[in-house]
Amino acid sequence: MSNLQATPEWQWVPQVSAIAREAGQRLREFFAQGVETEYKGEADLVTVADRTSEKLIRERLAAAFPEHGIYGEEGTRERLGSRFRWYVDPLDGTTNFAHGFPQFCISLGLEDRQPRGEAVLGPDEDGTLVAAVLYDPMRDELFAAERGRGARLNGKPMHVSHTPELSESLIATGFPSRKRHQNPNIHFYQEFTLRSHGVRRAGSAALDLAYVAAGRLDGYWEFNLNPWDTAAGILLVEEAGGLTSGFSGQPFRLDSREILASNGPIHAELLGLFENMFAGRDLAPLLTPQEYAARRLERAAKSGQ
Ligand code: IPD
Ligand code: CA
Ligand code: CA
Prior knowledge:
By secondary structure, the chain is α+β, with helices and mostly antiparallel strands. It contains nine helices and 15 strands. The strands form three sheets. The protein has an eight-stranded mixed β-sheet, sandwiched between helices. A five-stranded mixed β-sheet has the order 12-11-13-15-14, with helices on both faces. The chain has a two-stranded antiparallel sheet with strand order 1-2.
């Protein structure tokens, strides 16, 4: 199949990719020169780069799609009664950015708030995510998806991993920047670390989701995120063949305070661990290396390898 035939008929991705790349160029410049940090909360940082990127994205989106609404982390609230709404994180990974740690991105997710052609949904109702563009300016990686048209990384189809179980998985999480002492995630971090190949805490929720979509991570969870962190990444994971939900398996919602995403095969195991921990049950003892080796051999024998 030629490249041309393999390229889906994107409706929004080409224009939005150009906007994300332009904002990414500005972020690269700010990153090279260094920026001062301000505090929005306890450990919640913001910089001139966040604000400049959001202004640029807001202006470009309004010019490209004058009817669309925009909901941005740095305060943009425009045309929120519209059918389509962009969730904009102009710089996801601000703490990394401020410290010179090159792991951050721009995340743009589009929601259709009139998916069945009826009335526009009420403020508390979730629409359907229909497009995602997520750009990592340091690696020049552009992750994109549209509902029903698959997910791509720099134009090439991407797919979640096939890792069959948690003990062979690389997963990721993050920690909230507000009310950190009231959050239980450190306990989950410990358990998942001991039961997997490791848990990465790289500091950009949106990129974590993109990496699940790209098969670089097998799973990801986090508490207390906002729609601008998750809108694009959720669609990337789903279009790349993965699963998303809350911690009890309920459908993911943009306003839910919990997110679990995986390649699919390990989802039930992740949910089981959440269920047991929330119920305060004793967890299954960790496998010894010998038990683990025996299980691997057994599985290989069954699949005839
Ligand atoms: C943060 C990052 C981080 C996550 C935080 C988010 P920001 O977003 O995604 O990985 O753990 O909860 O707030 O503030 O850098 O856009
Ligand atoms: Ca964010
Ligand atoms: Ca941000």
